[in-house]
């Protein structure tokens, strides 16, 4: 089994302040016995609406901010997963990137967000380049295999299913989930749905107000929320058990009953909603 934590805070444009908040929550998670703490998307630098600041603030995956997070992981002997905006040489945009560091400060895994948030009046793709849909982010920790995806990815069941097919028993979803009509309900609903349909744990780490909707949560393989943080900054800690996943999959072998395969590829064009069709 592995003790895990979700860390919730509101990141801003001051990277040092964000690092200080992340360090304090990492210390709390380690003191509570967590072997992994997951932080939100854009933990390094965040604004409520993307602008040119995301380009100016971007860093490489071995840059100063990532180096400091790796040092935190090593200092507290804990795995740390968080989101950053990564420089892309030769690109006018950045990557929305997740990094996971191990308890020795080594890089365990990385992921570049595939589904960009061009919805509800936002246009993430104006500033962010999409990742490779063939890239899967997985890593092992204390007998469980984890897989990661980012924020808007939660609305796409295909990615979660591909991770389940890769042997993942727990999904981690860092997010800066924007507020809006029904958005908090969507967040809770989709987190539970992805857990149930893949019979996995799901750790959803969101930013809280003013940059996010909060409501970070850990959901078990039957869709039951087992730990969470409401509106304020803080952590939630719980234990994940491989046998819980195995027991649920014995009782509910839906993954074995599948009749369709998920493969990456370009979406089919949508039919024209207008005209006489």
TrEMBL record:
GO terms for molecular function: hydrolase activity. Belongs to the carbon-nitrogen hydrolase superfamily. NIT1/NIT2 family. Pfam families: CN_hydrolase (PF00795). It comes from the Bacteria. SUPFAM superfamilies: Carbon-nitrogen hydrolase. Keywords: Hydrolase. It comes from Actinocatenispora sera. Residues 2-242 form the CN hydrolase domain. This is Hydrolase. The keyword Ribonucleoprotein does not apply.
């Amino acid at each position: 089994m592995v003790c895990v934590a979700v860390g919730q805070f509101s990141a801003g444009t001051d990277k040092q302040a964000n690092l200080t908040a992340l360090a304090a929550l990492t210390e709390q998670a380690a003191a509570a016995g967590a072997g992994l703490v997951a932080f939100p998307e854009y933990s390094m630098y965040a604004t409520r609406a993307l602008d040119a600041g995301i380009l100016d603030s971007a860093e490489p995956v071995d840059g100063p901010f990532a180096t400091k997070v790796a040092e935190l992981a090593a200092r507290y002997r804990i795995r740390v997963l968080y989101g950053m905006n990564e420089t892309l040489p030769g690109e006018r945009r950045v990557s929305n990137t997740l990094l996971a560091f191990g308890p020795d400060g080594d890089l365990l895994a990385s992921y570049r967000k595939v589904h960009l948030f061009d919805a509800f009046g936002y246009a993430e793709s104006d500033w962010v380049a999409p990742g490779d849909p063939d890239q899967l982010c997985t890593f092992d920790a204390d007998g469980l295999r984890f897989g990661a995806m980012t924020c808007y990815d939660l609305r796409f069941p295909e990615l979660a299913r591909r991770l389940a097919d890769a042997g993942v028993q727990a999904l981690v979803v860092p997010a800066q989930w924007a507020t809006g009509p029904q958005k908090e309900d969507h967040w809770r609903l989709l987190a539970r749905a992805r857990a149930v349909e893949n019979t996995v744990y799901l750790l959803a780490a969101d930013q809280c107000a003013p940059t996010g909707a909060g409501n970070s949560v850990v959901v078990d393989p039957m869709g039951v929320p087992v730990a969470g943080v409401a509106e304020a900054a803080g952590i939630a800690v719980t234990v994940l058990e491989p046998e819980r996943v195995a027991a649920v999959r014995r009782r509910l072998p839906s993954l074995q009953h599948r009749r369709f395969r998920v493969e990456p590829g370009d979406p089919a064009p949508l039919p024209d909603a207008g005209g006489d069709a």
